[in-house]
Amino acid sequence: MTSSIISGIAFGCLFGGAFVGMFLRSVLPKDHLSSQATDVVKLGMGVIGTMGAILLGLLVASAKNTYDTQRNALAQMSAKIVLLDRLLAHYGSEAKEVRDLLRSAVVRILNQTWPDDTSRAAQLDPTAAQGEVVFDKMQALVPQNDTQRSLKSQALNIITDLAQTRWLMFAHSGGSISMPVVGVVVLWFTILFVSFGLYGPPNTIVIATLFVCAIAVSGALFLVLDLDNPFEGLLRISSAPLRNALANLGR
User: Fold this and answer.
1) Residue 191 and residue 189: Cα distance in Å, rounded?
2) What is the CA radius of gyration of the chain?
3) Contact predicate 214/15, CB 8 Å
4) C-alpha span between 8 and 51 (Å, rounded)
5) What is the spatial distance between Cα 189 and Cα 48, in angstroms, rounded to a whole number?
6) Would you say 132 and 181 are in contact if contact means Cβ atoms under 8 Å apart?
């Protein structure tokens, strides 16, 4: 499910939990709502609220780490592509075909990762970009002097590093957030909202406050899930580094 659907379900659970609490308030015997009972419930909800906040904080940290890892990998890959093109330029005219293939591979990566049709999912499979063809063509070049031999060795190392980076990005594309953990967070906050409805007077101000709080919590979950899937959704990583690299190829 997408992050918007999950966050919508979370909002429904939280705000619905508040109304369940209000319903229980109207049917429970008065001694269940005594000051002593209220004190115990408040202590219990404090424990659940603390654990929920800690777990939500861990989810934010994990999602942000995934997002930063992918963004940094993209920046490094873009820089290495430009460096590879410059090495091939110094190699000589023999490497022109390799440079053309490199440019074509970058264009394919852009089209597959950031498709014009936003309804299409990003394709991060490294084999789809046909980057191995660049390696094969580079490997087939026959150096004529020590300079070309050195440049070929450096170029092959960079191509290998690029392939490794692409496979790492693909391996991390599944995200790091476990849905059962998200479910536990929603459950704990739903219990909190039930308690809010149970001990809060059912007037307009209370309902509006609970509505805003439910939006805040579900919005936080939306951001966490969106950050954990950096090539999809509202917070997708910008293609600017790779487009800047493409603009500098062939010079």
Assistant:
1) 5
2) 27
3) yes
4) 22
5) 8
6) no
Rounded Cα gap, residues 57 and 172, in angstroms: 21
pTM value surpassing 0.85: no
- Mean pLDDT, 10 residues at a time, the chain of 251 residues: 85 92 82 76 87 90 90 93 92 89 90 79 73 85 90 92 89 81 91 88 88 93 90 86 90 76
Interatomic CA distance for residues 185 and 61, integer angstroms: 15
**Using H for helix, E for strand and C for coil, what is the string for the chain?**
CCHHHHHHHHHHHHHHHHHHHHHHHHHCCHHHHCHHHHHHHHHHHHHHHHHHHHHHHHHHHHHHHHHHHHHHHHHHHHHHHHHHHHHHHHHCHHHHHHHHHHHHHHHHHHHHHCCCCCCCCCCCCHHHHCHHHHHHHHHHCCCCCHHHHHHHHHHHHHHHHHHHHHHHHHHHHHCCCCHHHHHHHHHHHHHHHHHHHHHCCCCHHHHHHHHHHHHHHHHHHHHHHHHCCCCCCCCCCCCHHHHHHHHHCCC
CA dist., res. 146 & res. 149, Å (int):
5
In the block, tokens 């849905």 appear at: 179
**Quick one: tokens of 11?**
């909002």
**Backbone phi, then psi, for 73, in 5-degree steps?**
-65, -40
Residues 26, 31, 34, 39, CA torsion sign: negative
With 0-12 / 13-18 / 19 or more C-beta atoms within 10 angstroms meaning exposed / middle / buried, residue 98 is: buried
Instruction: Give the pLDDT confidence score for residue 249 in this predicted structure.
Output: 87
Q: What does the CA dihedral 244, 130, 137, 102 come to, rounded to 10 degrees? A: -10
